[in-house]
Specification:
Elements: H1 2-16, E1 24-29, H2 37-50, E2 55-60, H3 67-70, H4 79-83, E3 94-95, E4 101-103, H5 108-112, H6 117-127, E5 136-141, H7 147-155, E6 158-163, H8 167-182, E7 189-196, H9 199-217, E8 223-228, H10 231-239, H11 243-246, H12 251-264, H13 277-289
Parallel strand pairs: 1-5, 1-6, 2-4, 2-5, 6-7, 7-8
Antiparallel strand pairs: 3-4
Length: 290
């Protein structure tokens, strides 16, 4: 009850203050599983929060939702309870490591893809309450390009594609970018290369994808950053604690800090768009669900 009251106070305060921009929507995806996408999402969100931003994570991985597992938490409520109108948006927000707010997805996202237009309007109305309450809403999607993942990629303000230097991961990362582009969608993609043993390896991996995308698709895919391969990451997973919390001085944690710093200081400024934020996200989502 106290958490919900605090959220309400925060919402009232945020709406009372002039806002220079709306809540930004990010999607994090990958071409294949096993590249550390969800772990990146969680620690990226925590580091954004540590930098002074208000962040909420949506676990949109329909088949393998595990953001709460990475934090060792059993979520009481999920998106399912909102879609069934059993709970409000405020009641399904869970708190994880360092107070990070998140919404568990699970089977709820299957239901989301089958909503009627009236139900979509209700969902949009509820989630729109978060506009101004948080600075970033981050959707952690499933790996590969399912219809569900495609909708989140296209509707978001920008999409981070996580890959590793492994040849299959590189191929699959490019494949998801190519597929989205071939369907006629313009998406602000950014690359994150995970588990790099040295900076040269990460840069080489990013260049392969960027050069091919430029040559064959005619699009520029900038690199957001690299995350060093670090044994502390697996230790943290086994401890069910985010590595930036369990091992804040580790190589991987420092990598995330550099990456977030580059992102928020404007060095990776998003492409200008006519529409952005929660309302634009649902306008795009509604079109894709038709």
């Amino acid at each position: 009850m106290s958490d919900q009251a605090q959220r309400l106070r925060n919402l009232i305060r945020s709406q009372a203050e002039p806002q220079s921009s709306s809540t930004r929507i990010l999607t994090v995806t990958s071409g294949k599983g096993g590249v550390g996408k969800s772990n990146f999402t969680l620690n990226f969100a925590l580091t954004l929060q540590k930098s002074g931003y208000r962040v909420l994570v949506f676990d949109a991985d329909i088949g393998l939702a595990n953001i709460d597992v990475l934090m060792g938490i059993n979520s009481t409520y999920s998106l399912y309870h909102l879609l069934k109108r059993e709970k409000t948006i405020w009641e399904i927000i869970n708190k994880g490591s360092n107070g990070l707010e998140y919404i568990a997805g699970g089977s709820g996202f299957n239901d989301l893809m089958r909503l009627t237009e009236a139900e979509i309007d209700y969902f949009a109305e509820q989630v729109n309450l978060l506009n101004g309450y948080v600075d970033y809403i981050i959707f952690d999607t499933g790996a590969g390009l399912s219809k569900e993942t495609l909708r989140f990629i296209v509707a978001a303000d920008e999409t981070i594609v996580v890959t590793t230097p492994e040849p299959t991961a590189i191929t699959d990362a490019y494949a998801i970018i190519k597929m989205v582009h071939s369907l006629g969608h313009e998406v602000d993609f950014k690359l994150v290369i995970n588990r790099v043993t040295e900076l040269h390896e990460g840069k080489q991996t990013a260049d392969k994808i960027s050069l091919v995308a430029k040559r064959f698709l005619g699009i520029h895919i900038p690199t957001l950053g690299f995350v060093e391969d670090d044994p502390n990451v697996m230790k943290a997973v086994k401890q069910q604690t985010p590595f930036t919390v369990a091992y804040p001085g580790s190589a991987a944690s420092r990598s995330i800090e550099r990456l977030v710093s580059r992102y928020v200081t404007g060095q990776m400024a998003p492409e200008p768009q006519q529409q952005s934020g929660v309302k634009a996200f649902f306008n795009k989502m509604r079109k894709l669900l038709k």
